[in-house]
């Protein structure tokens, strides 16, 4: 793997590799069929503190640089992209607080994660997908509280989160400048979940609606200031998209691993099929794409770590990695021939898992808008 990582992370990477190879990979194969959320695997991940890799050191996290974390997340994705998505989406859920929250909220969110919880990010609504500013959820100030009403959909970790960062309209007359961001703890009266998605891929991650019905939260749970919620959401996504690129890269890497292993073992015309230069070239192309995606992820994360602008690089990493994850998975299936199309073999799952990475955290069409805005200017 081409990430250049710290010595500390190298030791952890060995542990993660062992856990992912021996437990996550095999067990998730079954959970992919049942669609059940594999609690015991997540419990083990929590025990190993793999769910809190993105928590900053001052709030109890491991204090790793982002590229080292990417190496660990990719390893998880090689085993199962749904598993890596749960972990990464928890980081997404925490980001609005880290970007703009008060010190108290930062401590609260990070403690909830370190103690074994997950975060969830609630932006999308039935009528506000790509048009993220069109949400109808409202938050009305009432004394020392805000009262939230509305329905969020396609929320990763929706039913398993300990807290939610939620966008809601506080002033309808102001458009996107009337949107605010709130921190809501699980168990708050008026907060419920519904409509669990029966997904095509990443079936070991939980995705559902999150519903707010007269959900009263303390006024201090406002993240940042009123009217800044859309900007905070965009800044959150600017960071989070690289991580989706990282998970997509892991899917592609698994495709390469499986294709090489099968190519060495499958005999046709009296020799292993990998001896054919046509298939060696295929593997080389898969490697060129996957390594390029990984370098884009590493570049965006390095810029983040250095405090340099990264929005364009993050969108490129997510967009490119998800596109090549589709291509590489498809080529892996092709290498397996008819067996590749069978659910008994591991590669058809990769294509199913890969598809969502072209869609969530902003479709790849939206990524191109973000990239164009960065290059051309608004
Ligand atoms: N950083 C800071 N501010 C930003 C920004 C950014 N990256 N992008 C926009 N803004 C600001 C703009 O500057 C503007 O403010 P001003 O008027 O003061 O200049 C304001 O926000 C509105 O910007 P736009 O006019 O560009 O907004 P828009 O309504 O045209 O939408 C968009 C822009 C980029 C298309 C946005 O709607 C978008 O990102 N859509 C995709 C949504 C998305 O990614 N959803 C994913 C949901 S999360 C998910 O999938 C979760 C999961 O569980 C896995």
TrEMBL record:
Keyword Chaperone: no
GO molecular function terms listed in the Swiss-Prot or TrEMBL record: acyl-CoA dehydrogenase activity; flavin adenine dinucleotide binding
Cofactor(s) this protein cannot do without: FAD
Segment forming the signal sequence: none
Entry-linked Pfam families: Acyl-CoA_dh_1 (PF00441), Acyl-CoA_dh_M (PF02770), Acyl-CoA_dh_N (PF02771)
Superkingdom of source: Bacteria
Domain Acyl-CoA dehydrogenase/oxidase C-terminal: 227-375
Name of this chain's protein: Butyryl-CoA dehydrogenase
Naturally occurring in which organism (per UniProt): Clostridium cadaveris
Organism ancestry: Bacteria, Bacillati, Bacillota, Clostridia, Eubacteriales
